[in-house]
Each structure stands twice: as structure tokens, then as C-alpha cells.
């Protein structure tokens, strides 16, 4: 029976979950999240870093030296985790691991990230009202909002949060009405 190769997203989920569960046991979930964000800054500055530490560009000794520099100021948990990723040649999956860890952390803390698309710029009062409504609807502790202006939606809002899309835009209502009128 052929074996299925896991996607980087699935690998990231598995490692992210394992790291989060261990960090939670050690009561270090926030500290580890902070360290992961620092690592992602390094990855953003050197986009090929994960591949460099995984592929054959450098000799093993050079990779270990580079990893040691990266983990110099890291906690013992993070150092051991990165060493594990290095040994299993998974440092190229760190961005996916961080994404999975962040999702688990947000679930644990009751934090949701919502992306709002509006036809016009929303003022602070509107954003606060929207944040409060989402907190109540999702039973969340905290809502982080990002906004985008898209005049093509004509009016209303599109809210993307927690894997859901709530489309209250005028453009989508017009499309629905058009379909009903044309019997499509």
C-alpha cells in the first residue's frame, strides 16, 4: 500500500499541537509564542533559512553552527524543539508550525482574529461596536480586527472570523436578488 506524503500544513499542525501541549504543561505557552514570533522575524529577514537548514546547500556541521546561533538566547524548550526539527529535517515547516501554534493559543485564550471588508473606512466607534458584537456572538475574550476598504461591495460588510465568512455586503444581496429574478 503506498504511503501518502503529508502536506506542510498537516506537518505544521502536528508539530504545532505537540509544542503547544508541551508548553501548556510547562505553563510557558505565552513565552513560547513570543519566541516563535522572534523566529518568524528571522525567517522573514532570511526567507530561505528553513530550506537552507533542511536541504544540501550546507554541510551538517555548518547547519548546526547556524542553528546554534539562532538558539543562542532561546529557552530550553525552544532549543530542544528546534533541535528536534533539525534532526527530522523539518525546519522548513516552521511557518506552518507557528500558524498552528497561534491558532491553538488563540483558541485557548478565547482570542479571534477578524478581517472586516467595508465599502468605506470605518471609524473607531463602528469598530468598537463591531468588536463587541463579535465578542458576544463568538463568546470570545478578545477580538483582533483588521480592516480593508473595497468599494466594489457597494455597502455593508464582509466579516471573516474563525473560519466563517459573514457576507452582509450590498453587492452579494444584489447578486442574490438577480439570481432570484432570473430564476438561475
From TrEMBL:
Function field: F(1)F(0) ATP synthase produces ATP from ADP in the presence of a proton or sodium gradient. F-type ATPases consist of two structural domains, F(1) containing the extramembraneous catalytic core and F(0) containing the membrane proton channel, linked together by a central stalk and a peripheral stalk. During catalysis, ATP synthesis in the catalytic domain of F(1) is coupled via a rotary mechanism of the central stalk subunits to proton translocation. This protein is part of the stalk that links CF(0) to CF(1). It either transmits conformational changes from CF(0) to CF(1) or is implicated in proton conduction.
Family classification: Belongs to the ATPase delta chain family.
Gene that this sequence comes from: atpH
Topology relative to the membrane: Peripheral membrane protein
Keyword terms of this UniProt record: ATP synthesis, Cell membrane, CF(1), Coiled coil, Hydrogen ion transport, Ion transport, Membrane, Transport
One cellular component (GO) term of this entry: plasma membrane
Gene3D superfamilies: N-terminal domain of the delta subunit of the F1F0-ATP synthase
GO molecular function: proton-transporting ATP synthase activity, rotational mechanism
Protein name: ATP synthase subunit delta
Top-level taxon of origin: Bacteria
PROSITE patterns the record matches: ATPASE_DELTA
InterPro entries, per database record: ATP_synth_OSCP/delta_N_sf, ATPase_OSCP/d_CS, ATPase_OSCP/dsu
Subcellular compartments: Cell membrane; Membrane
Coiled-coil parts of chain: 117-144
